[in-house]
Specification:
Layout: H1 3-13, H2 17-24, H3 28-35, H4 43-53, E1 69-75, H5 81-104, H6 127-138, H7 149-155, E2 159-163, E3 171-178, E4 181-187, H8 192-208, H9 218-230, H10 233-240, H11 249-259, H12 263-272, H13 278-290, H14 309-319, H15 325-332, H16 336-343
Parallel strand pairs: 2-4
Antiparallel strand pairs: 1-3, 3-4
Helix pairs in contact: 1-5, 2-3, 2-4, 6-9, 8-9, 11-12, 12-13, 14-15, 15-16
Length: about 350
Amino acid sequence: MIGERLKRARAAAGLSMEKLGKAAGVSANMIKKYEHDHSMPSSPVLIKMADVLGVRIEFFFRPVRVHLSGVEYRKKSSVPQKVLDRITADVLDQAERWFELRNLWPAFPVPDFSLPESLPEINSVEDVEQFSLAVRNQWQLGLNPLPDLIDLLESKGILVIITASEQADKFDGLQAKVEGQPIVVVSSQWPGCRQRFTLAHELGHLLLHESLPSTMDEEVACNRFASSFLLPAVGAFEHLGNQRRKIDWKELHLLKHEYGLSMAGILYRCKDLNILEEHQYKKQFIEFSARGWRKAEPGEPYPAEHTLLFEQLVYRGAGEGIISDAKAAELLKIPLAMFRQSKMMEGAQA
């Protein structure tokens, strides 16, 4: 029956039963019956609903159903539940297509997530610095800037989902698990530096959750982990020196584009590392805020990150005969003819 999927698609589209019913030519009460599996829509009604909801007919009959567990929203208190429902519906749709592909693949080429071994004990927030360096060392990342954080997390078995849901800029991140695999969700509407900090912050939750003393605020620790992971202390000292009275705005902007950490984040990092004393940091941050830069930082924004892994795996699966072209098109939510044209690069400019 299609009830659960219809309800989810309606939530993702932000439509009431009345609006969906009107568009599909049935009553709101009939939509309610469909969602409770008390009735089954006719083919014409199903086609109309799929069109209105922006899904393919196959969505309603998809065999794989996933459930998010351990859902942790990092959100503003003013975010309405309706917005969260739309984001969750989009995440479930993407996760289902991921796991349907994985279940069709005999030896899925994405590893399971596992914690790095022999990480140092944490007794204070300052210890998080060494913890983040140990993670970099275990993963052989060196101390240089990390050019593609999404690719890094995916290579470690963390599923990154980018949601384009309306008003997705109203939440600060989402972490959950599906069948034991960690999922981190960011918005396509965010600038790249915000995406990267959220990704590093959620990675901090995954790695630090069982390692922190009960007296330590986990959010504070994960913020420290994220800034340290993105901009190691040695890089900050190399570019800014050991002690300053003030950091020029252009310096922050250039360092932002090298390490993918916001200007505000780098400024706070200078306080954490005692490059700026507390009163110097406060004075400069007040000026930063007065210029209106907390909402939008000056200059070119750091480019947003993207994920291509799912799409690449779908094309690879079709190319190796693991899945059919029809299934590949369904997973990518495009017509079969479009998929076949795309895989042959038909219409692409030389």
